[in-house]
Structures are given as structure tokens and as C-alpha cells.
Design goal:
alpha/beta; ten-stranded mixed sheet; about 20% helix; globular
Length: about 230
């Protein structure tokens, strides 16, 4: 395969909701820790959409206005034994203060995935703080191109796609999700308007069909469902 394999790895409540916070429940927190552990067991890279990573760091872009840049991939390899943390940021809206992401006891090198719609000063800013980036599309994000570059430039065989709903939908629309790893925590959210782990306004490419690969019961009343891609019926 000339691209990285994709495992969509998500945690939901029993009623299928994401972006919830049940810190007062020991079982739910323990299942969440197991979800985190598995992020780093599935491959050499994981990533999320812009909203998941949104930070409040202030950046003075005026000092980058006159800096020369090239709209070319900038490859920086992670240190040996480190992961890649991929940020889908097609318009260059994220703000960072350093190139390292700390999560679940692991430090990973940030990698921004952009389109050619990002302003030049944003590239100069990434250059300045040492964050690598690759382009995956001119105006719109191209998930297939991203996966090809991830394998070609960074030698990543398996990529854990960890949300949110919109970026997951982009990969599902393109039939690029090879497996689903769904960790279910023992809680009901109950909010009918809360996000599910795949969500988009354009549902013309859905439904998608998968076959069950494995069911695993966890300690603390959690479950892991594993699915594999199958042809549409």
C-alpha cells in the first residue's frame, strides 16, 4: 500500500457521544486512560483536527510579514523513539509555543498539515519555532495525498486518527479508514445535540459499512470494538 494505514481510534459514551467530561467517575477515567494508552500502540503517528488542538497562545505575526517562505513541504524527523502528533490545520489557525506535544506520558513532534491557503507569515512562524509541515491540497484538504506523504516522507505505516467528528468524516468519505477502534466508557451523556465520533453536513458519501473484527471487555466496565473496512452493499 502506497499510503499509511488508518485506524480511527475514538472514545465515546454508551450513547455514542464524544467531547464529554466525567472526571468524577473512576471507571470512566480508567477507561479513558486505556484509550490514551492505545493511541501509542497502534502506529508511529496520531492526529486530530484543528478544533481539538485549539490553543489561546498569542502570536505577533507582524514580525513574520517580510520573511521569505516557500510553499513546499518542510520535513523534520522526530527524535528516535518519539511519535508524530499531526495537526490538520488547512488555513493556518493554530498557535503553538514549541514543537513538542506532551500527551498521556509521551512527547511527540508536532506536524502541521496545511493547504496552500495558509498565509506566508504562518509558514515563517512555523519555521521560526521549528514545527515541520506538509501540504495536502491547494484549496481543500486531500486526505489521500496526506497519507501518501506521511508514508513517503516520514515512513509511517499506521496512523491513528483521533477526531474530532469533521476530520474523521473527511477520511470516511474518501474510504480511507481501514479500521475502527471504538473505546466505550460506562456512561450515558444524554445530550441529543452532542457530537458523535463522525459528523458532517454533507452525508452524500454515507452510509459506510464495516465488519466486526473483535470485541474486548476492559476492566472498569469499558468495551473496545474493533471493525475492519468492507465494501459497500
Amino acid at each position: 500500500m502506497n499510503r499509511a494505514k488508518v485506524i480511527c481510534h475514538m472514545m465515546t459514551t454508551i450513547d455514542g457521544k464524544i467531547s464529554i467530561d466525567f472526571d468524577g467517575n473512576a471507571d470512566y477515567m480508567a477507561v479513558g486512560n486505556e484509550y490514551d494508552r492505545r493511541v501509542f500502540s497502534y502506529g508511529q503517528a496520531y492526529g486530530c483536527g484543528r478544533a481539538t488542538f485549539q490553543q489561546e497562545y498569542a502570536v505577533d505575526f507582524s514580525k513574520y510579514k517580510s520573511m521569505p517562505v516557500k510553499y513546499e513541504d518542510k520535513v523534520i524527523m522526530p527524535p528516535e523513539g518519539k511519535f508524530l502528533c499531526i495537526c490538520f490545520d488547512r488555513f493556518g489557525k493554530l498557535r503553538w509555543d514549541n514543537p513538542i506535544m506532551s500527551y498521556a506520558g509521551h512527547e511527540s513532534l508536532l506536524l502541521e498539515v496545511l493547504t496552500e491557503q495558509v498565509p506566508p507569515e504562518f509558514l515563517a512562524y512555523l519555521d521560526d519555532i521549528g514545527i515541520p509541515y506538509i501540504f495536502a491540497g491547494r484549496r481543500e484538504f486531500d486526505p489521500a495525498l496526506f497519507l501518501q506523504k506521511l508514508k513517503e516522507l516520514y515512513h509511517v505505516d499506521t496512523f491513528a486518527l483521533c477526531g474530532g467528528a469533521e476530520i474523521n468524516a473527511a477520511f470516511f468519505k474518501a474510504d480511507l479508514v481501514d479500521e475502527i477502534s471504538l473505546v466505550i466508557g460506562p456512561a450515558i451523556d444524554g445530550n441529543r445535540h452532542a457530537l458523535t465520533f463522525v459528523g458532517t453536513e454533507d452525508v452524500s458519501s454515507f452510509p459506510k459499512y464495516f465488519k466486526l473484527k473483535n470485541v474486548e471487555q476492559l476492566e472498569n466496565n469499558g468495551v473496545v470494538l474493533r471493525y475492519e473496512m468492507r465494501n459497500r452493499q
